[in-house]
Specification:
about 280 residues, alpha/beta, Rossmann fold, 2 domains, six-stranded mixed β-sheet, six-stranded parallel β-sheet, 12 strands, binds NADP nicotinamide-adenine-dinucleotide phosphate
Amino acid sequence: MTDHPRIPLAAVLGHPIAHSRSPALHGYWLKRYGIPGHYIPIDIAPVDLPRLIRTLPALGFVGCNVTIPHKEAILQIADIVTDRAALIGAANTLIFRKDGKIHADNTDGSGFIANLRQNAPDWKPASGPAVVLGAGGAARAVVAALIEVGVPEIRLANRTRPRADALRSDFGAKVHVHEWVQAGNLMDDAATVINTTSLGMTGKADFRIPLDRINPHAVCNDLVYTPLKTQFLIEAEARGCTVVDGLGMLLHQAAPGFERWFGLRPEVDEATRKAVLFA
Ligand code: NAP
């Protein structure tokens, strides 16, 4: 009997999952680099997640992404959790190791920074305070990453104050919590302004935070990428700011997983953006 090499499989697990752009992205990279692998979406309810995770390696899966609502729960299932995933309290990238262990990491923060570095190359994170709007799961990855790259002060405002207070106690004294209604007043000397809320996303509430006090030298980034040019970015750009959309974060957070599963670091470039936008 011939021992055929197994075709590597990967997946994104969520509930629901039909909206995910990850299959289009990984599918594009697999085709571009001629790698004989597959990446599929799997809709799995939370109650069934632990059993599925233990079954996937036996079926030929080398790893997977996890998305809403599994990003926190997966930490209880994984055997090895990286320090940054533990600090953030969520993982998005799993590697099924040859020794049977499940390794969980969070690449949202590195994807967020890589997007800013690529699309705002003059951005100097240490040059002034950052304003972070929102305190959900994505904000935790953003705050951890901003601290890591040397932002001196993070001004955090969230509609639900206790969620912002929790970030302050988890991430320390660089995080200063402000009232949500004061968000517009935090902007004057900020070098970086990040929207991590879902405000402005297609189908969600409008982004209505006043930007009249924004520093025209600020680099502004919206994590929302549907639409690509959000109201926040349109207004910030009109006031002279450098603006970066959220699609690049999605692309960059995916690259480390692809490399671990399929053995090649994929390029994040204009062709990749187009492949995901027009898939
Ligand atoms: P989440 O944990 O549910 O957090 C949602 C955040 O939005 C919270 O801060 C929430 O405030 C705020 N919010 C929602 N509705 C609001 C409203 N009407 N007024 C004021 N604040 C409101 O979600 P998440 O995972 O952090 O994701 C947040 C956004 O980032 C989503 O749009 C997601 O698509 C995007 N995202 C993008 C990327 C990327 O790669 N570009 C990666 C991750 C996430 P409360 O705490 O008060 O509810």
